[in-house]
Amino acid sequence: MIPLPDGRVGFVVGDVTDKGVPAALVMSATRSLLRASAQRLIEPGEVLERVNEQLCPDMPEKMFVTCLYGVLDPATGHLRFANAGHDLPYVRTADGVVELRARGMPLGLMTGMPCEEKEATLQPGDGVLLHSDGVVEAHDPERDMFGFPRLKETMADAPPGQELIDRVLSDLEAWTGPDAEQEDDITMVTLERSTGESQVSAAANGSVLAEFEVPSEAGNEREVMDRVETAVADLGLEPSRLQRLKTAVAEATMNAMEHGNEYQADRPVSIRVLHSPDRVLVQITDRGDAGELAEPEAPDLEAKLEGRQTPRGWGMFLIEKMVDEARVTSEGGGHTVELALRLEGDGDDNE
Amino acid sequence: MTTSELQAAVRQRDGGVAVIDLQGDVNSSAEVALNEAYARATAGGPGSVVLNFEHADYINSTGIALIVGLLAQARTSKIEMKAFGLSDHYREIFEITRLSDFMTIADNEDRAVGGPEGSNDA
Fold it and tell me: Which of B28, B58, B65 has the CB atom closest to A222's CB atom?
């Protein structure tokens, strides 16, 4: 775990090929490089790419490091991660256990390797299990591997935290037999997002100002704008910044109703308004099941006027211009747009 | 707040200027009203069409797309488009989207109607 600015937390799990002193030295070097890069760089993909560049020149032959690095915002549950060839972490959600997928080659193999970066949002009550291949590659006396499906099943049934780790270890022991010698080292890390109840009390990190749903019907974005305005009324946002937030909220809600939920009555849009000491966050979640939303083409007014581009396609563009930060995450068959606006510039308000 | 369907009325002003007074929400439900008003406004072959946003208090991305559609038609017919009555917020959005590069945004109706480019200067 690596504490980062803004209260965010970096977390990392890794595994080096081979054993013994050379492997330990490589792992030690990787740890130091990661900690140093994590403080300088924000994007997890960039961090792993930088560590790879620094590791490669001195890497012993036939040795490499798999590594998963993520940055978690505990106030919102927002998670960005990149993976250099490590086993995929599992997330236990209300809808079942899913994998956190991101592509990347192990570190130390060759320079110039890109590391894909992905995002997800942990909902209250969700849990993550990071694990090394010593778990799934453990064999039973018949040489059958424990495997990913069994680990996923254990994750689905087990309680969170240390109890999950204990459950995996006891399932492993049952699989390999009590007298079996451990074949490979085993690393497990769990992360849990506390439920909303305790989060409200954790006002220093981020309190929930409002949480509600609206049916996916055209025009309901107006209601969402008004309710968000009411929820942030005491934060002293400058009127112009409030207008921008409302426009971003309206556009994100429209996208959720239209593209995510396809205006289906049984698929509402969920809205959460959160307040941390320096910013307001609005999370807008649809129940779409169409996988990741397509990246919209950047609007070009001249192209639109000449008929080379559709006149539409302004929504995401406006959202990004209106707030300080806008992120889209997809998981478990839904998409969340998170809008962040700093609370600065409200000095003139006397209220 | 409830949504309000767009009403669009057309007034002819001297000098070949048609003004479209917009009242309500400029969103997807405004398409028919807006296009019909534009057709009425341009039926007499005006030199310019002025959109009055004084009573349009909500414009969303679909509304922007509708305005882009009108602007494209106007350019084809070589009709100048102008606008006035935008709040600071929507004026900013017209700037961000670059709509203001293609239509003069005036402070009030007289300046919008009064002359060609530069009419919104003091």
Answer: B58
* Residue A15: CB atoms within 10 Å: 23
Element (H, E) at A244: helix A239-255
Q: What is the CATH number of the domain that holds A324?
A: 3.30.565.10
pLDDT tens sequence across A273-301: 999 888 999 999 998 875 556 666 789 99
Which strand (E) or helix (H) includes residue A76?
none
> What is the β-pairing status of strands A2-3 and A269-276?
unpaired
Q: How confident is the model at residue A237 (pLDDT cuts 50, 70, 90)?
A: very high
Contact A304 B93 (CB under 8 A): no
Contact A269, A213 (CB under 8 A): yes
**How many whole angstroms from its chain centre is CA A32?**
24
State the residue for tokens 């935008």: B86
Tell me, what's the ipTM? 0.90
Distance from CA of B63 to the nearest CA of A (A): 9
pLDDT computed for residue B31 by the predictor: 95
Categorize the per-residue pLDDT at A338 as very low, low, confident or very high, splitting at 50, 70 and 90.
Answer: very high
Q: Would you say residue A258 lies in a domain?
A: yes
| Cβ-based neighbour number of residue A19 at 10 Å | 10
Is A237's Cβ below 8 Å from some Cβ in B? no
Residue A303 CA from chain centroid, whole number: 35
Interface of A with B in 308-337 (CB under 8 A): 310-315, 317-318, 321
Domain co-membership, A302 together with A324 = yes
Q: Same domain, yes or no, for A236 and A323?
A: yes
**C-beta neighbour count of A68 within 10 angstroms:** 27
Cα dist from A113 to A48, A53, A129, A350, whole Å:
10, 9, 26, 53
Question: Can you tell me the distance from the alpha carbon of A220 to that of B2, in angstroms, rounded to the nearest whole number?
Answer: 9
- In this complex, which of A219, A306, A312 lies closest to B3 when CB atoms are compared? A219
Q: Nearest CA to CA, how far is B11 from chain A (Å)?
A: 26
Is A315 found in the same domain as A227?
yes
Report yes or no: A251 at the B interface, CB cutoff 8 Å: yes
What pLDDT does residue A157 have?
A: 85
Inter-chain residue contact A222 with B1, CB threshold 8 Å: yes
Read off the amino acid at residue A46.
E
Give how far B57 is from chain A: nearest CA, Å. Answer: 11
